[in-house]
Design a protein that fits this description.
The chain has about 475 residues and is α+β, with helices and mostly antiparallel strands. The protein is built from 15 helices and 20 strands. The strands form 4 sheets. Strands 13-14-15-16-17-18-12-19 form an 8-stranded mixed β-sheet. Bound molecules: FE2/S2 (inorganic) cluster and fe (ii) ion.
Length: about 475
Amino acid sequence: MSRSRLSLPSDPALAPGEARCPGPSTRDIIISDGDNAPAALTDPEVYGFLGQEDIPFERYASREMFDLEMKRMWNRTWQWACREEHLQKVGDYVVYDIGHYSIVVIRVAPDSIRAFHNSCLHRGMQFFDPGTRGSGKQFLRCPFHGWTWNLDGSLKEIPCRWDFPHVQDEAFRLPEVQVDTWGGFVFVNLDPHAGPLAEQLEVLPEHFSQYAVPLEDRYVALHTEKVLPCNWKMGMEAFLEAYHVLATHPEGLRTAGDANAQYDIFGRFTTRFVHTIGSPSPHLPEPPSEEEILAVLSSRRKEDIPKLADGETARSAWARQARANVGEEFDCDLSDVSVSQMLDSIEYWMFPNMMLFPGISIPLIYRFRPNGDDVDTCLHEVLFLRPKPKNGPTPPPAEKIRLEIEDSYTSIPNFPGGLDFVLDQDTDNLQRQRAGAKAAVKRGETLGNYQEARIRRFHATLDEFLAS
Ligand code: FES
Ligand SMILES: [Fe+2]
């Protein structure tokens, strides 16, 4: 396959969105692994053309847009606040913040989690500082004058109660925020009239039931939060496509399917890409041999690679190695896990800001949020969810490591699998993209019909919220 082949104009006989990269598709590659890959990975793609108009850059820069998102979207959508393991014991709490909203999520009984607005009903003081977490709370007591609520939200005590004859207990229950859980995540929704979380999860429960090592059987082994120099949507969209691999991560071309990645648009709220690891990019004029691919994957010289058995691919050999390595490191049995789930970059997105990777070697969760009230910066969290050990206690969830805009992921000791370098490449683009977009003469971005369709789906759903 030649480089020019991928640069040929679109076939005019095809309707918009129908064109695909020539050569084997992601699905072809996964099926040819010949193992027990789940139907979620071998079923035909789910895609529908969503239009091809430019997305205005104004959407990333305007204060009005940011404020409208706060008023009509963030306070009406399900979003994950923390993991259940952050709330192991009664009285454990996490403060989840989105823009100027702040929510206390707290375990109030062994089988019950509640969430309250982090704002005292006396004079508005926050019960806890934004972004903090703690334990041992039997009550919510305001640090200013000491008004106190029980964990069920009922008013417990007002110092000098004789001075507040106008305060009725029932009217002064703490306002609650809707809570639900799935996959070990605790979700909140500020809208008391919002529909159930299940509506927003769409295909996720069904698909994730097919993957090995369910999300609820994993723990947070590493957790970072980096400030990105751009609007939260721009930061998130850098991770919604594999189109940028060619120019941004060129060293990955020998081992990553990029132009032939699969994109699914499951519904209003969920999308996915799957790009293979251990198969070469269709951009390469000459595909490397399987031994060469295996050498790159294992960071060894080709001469040091044991000969592959007849018909064995670099993918299957590397997956076998990964099953053994990860299984030993995290004390779990991965012998039945498909090559694709072991290796590939399988990324689900749920509106508005969550990405979930069911893969075993790339077991990531991403969350993107505005950085407080700032239009031009955002927070990007990365969690590595590893299998809970078969024997012995599960380690506590990792403490969050904060990185500022200029900090490199390589400053974090033992960051897994070379992903520090990749994340630096991704996030290093954003300052220039923000600056270029603000100064652009052409006032919007022009998206690929297929490879960037997830970005378009996101904007369409966002617009539905903003318009209603
Ligand atoms: S502001 Fe909370 S007790 Fe006064
Ligand atoms: Fe990337």
